[in-house]
Amino acid sequence: MTLTEPEPRVDTFEGSISLQDVTMEFTSRDRNSLLAVDTTSLTIPSGQFVSVLGPSGCGKSTLLRMIAGLMAPTSGSVSIGGEPVRGPSRKVGIAFQTPSLLEWYTVAENIALPARMGRHPADKRSVERRVEELLATVKLASLGGKYPSELSGGMRQRVAIARSLITDPAVILMDEPFGALDAITREHMHDELLSIWRESGATVLFITHDIAEAVYLSDRIVVMSPRPGRIVADIVNELPRPRNSSTRALPEFTRLASELRVHINH
């Protein structure tokens, strides 16, 4: 499997991600240090779908949070579109494993929330129009007035994905967003996500510990070692697109999954 990067899917620099020699070290209450991520570099072109794969505790989520601007690295640099990351940005959308919807807000209000926060909230009418578009995109067009408690797990996760898209981000960060779903719903959500990604043209960084999920979704798969997290493999996924249920039956799918398993267990 070649290790050269594929061509970016969109002709823009805005969604490119760069980590240069990033290290993240935490200090515990007893003042012992914990090295979560060690001297890691990664470059992702705009429009690419990249999965980060590794065992629990390897620093995958820490990497995502640094890119999101939710924490600063102990050393090294993080940039998006050539600009240093100094905090959360509207050009970055985030979806976590738990949808974290506000139960007292309707579906539409939850989706609109990021666009109405901060120093410069978006125009109300433009936000409402965008919410309608996103509800249609995630196939919840008739449910904008419902509350989260009235939705299934898969529907709630669709709302969270729509919320991550409300500011038209150049980068979408996803931290095991389908981990709590059953297998059938998860596979359905894979196809929904790929459709949304194709329409948005955004760069996606997808955190997972599920090998088959990474193979099905990604243009490229980065494997991290157990703590301290380091990149031990960076593999281009040459499975053809668009992907569908028959993709999982391809010999190439099985071969790539086996290759990734070797890197993880090495």
Characterise the protein shown here.
- The chain is of the alpha/beta class.
- The protein folds into two domains: 17-91 and 169-265, 3-Layer(aba) Sandwich (Rossmann fold), CATH 3.40.50.300; 103-168, no CATH class.
- The protein contains seven helices and ten strands.
- A six-stranded mixed sheet has the order 6-7-8-3-9-10, with helices on both faces. Strands 2-1-4-5 form a four-stranded antiparallel sheet, with helices on one face.
- The two termini are 17 Å apart.
- It comes from Herbiconiux flava.
- Pfam families: ABC_tran.
- Keywords: ATP-binding, Nucleotide-binding, Transport.
Short description, anyone?
With 266 residues, this protein is an alpha/beta fold.
Backbone shape: globular
Major sheet size, sense and barrel closure: 6 strands, mixed
Cα(first) to Cα(last) distance is 17 Å
The SSE order reads EEEHEEEHHHEHEHEEH
Give the strand order, joined by hyphens, for the main sheet.
6-7-8-3-9-10
- Tally the helices: what do you get? 7
User: At the fourth CATH level, what is the homologous superfamily of the largest domain?
Assistant: P-loop containing nucleotide triphosphate hydrolases
Radius of gyration: 18 Å
Structural class: alpha/beta
* Average pLDDT level: 90
CATH architectural label of the largest domain:
3-Layer(aba) Sandwich
Percent helix = 25-40%
The third-level CATH topology of the largest domain is Rossmann fold
